[in-house]
Amino acid sequence: MEKQHDNPFQFTKTVILLPLFFVLTLWLVFWYEMQFQDNLSHFGIYPREVYGLKGILFSPFLHGDIEHLANNSFALLVLLPILRYFYKEQSFVVLFLGILFSGLGTWLLGRPSYHIGASGLIYALVSFIFFKGIFTKYYRLVALSFTIVILYGGSVWYMFPSVKEGISWEGHLAGFLVGLALALVLKTPQFSKPIFYEWEKPDFNPELDPFMKNFDEKGNFNPLPKPEEVIKEYFSSSMKVVYEFLGGKK
Question: Which parts pass through the membrane (predicted)?
Fold first, then answer.
C-alpha cells in the first residue's frame, strides 16, 4: 500500500466543486444587482472607516461590470482547483485568511473610495502557490511555481500605482503580501521526506545489527562485554635517553 508521503496529491470532488461554488456565488450576486437594479458597492471596503470594515468579507463577491467579473472568475477557476488539489490540507485556511487579511490590508492602505472585487484574493492565491512551491523544494510544486509565473507573472505590474486607472492596486499589493506571509507561516508536512529507520528497511537483518546483538535469545538486554584496551608501543629504542631540566635558577 502506497504511503501518504509518497502520493500527497489526491483528487476529490471538492477540487471541482469548490471553485464552481465560489464563482457561482459571484455570478449570483452580480445577477441580483442587474436584475433588481440594486448597486451593492456600498458593501465594499472603504479604507480607514469603521463602516468600511464590512467590505473585508463582502467585497470579494462584488464586481463593477461583466468584464471585471469574467476576468476574476476565470482566474479563480484556474487557481482554486490548483490550491485544493496541491494544498488540500491548507486550502480552506488559505482561502479564508486570504480574503480576511487582503481585505484588511486594503482597508489600511487603500485610497478613500469603495474597493470591490476578488482581485485581492486572486493575488493572495498566486503569491501563496508560487512562494510555497519554492519554499517546499518539492519538485512538482517547484514546477507549479514556474507555471504560475508563466500564467500570472505579468500581473505583478498591477501592484503599483498609476499603471491602470480604475483598479485597486492597493488590494493587489495587500493580497500579494498576504500570500507570501501565508507561504512562510503555514506548514506543509505532507511534503516532508519520510524518515526510515534501519529496522524498517526490507533488507534489515537483526543478527547483523550491532544494537540487536545486545539481546539474548530470550529478549533480555545482555550487552556484550567491552573488549580490553590494548596499549600499543609506537616507539621503542635500545638507546638510553637521559632527560635534564634546564630551568632558570633564581
Answer: 12-32, 92-110, 116-134, 141-160, 166-186
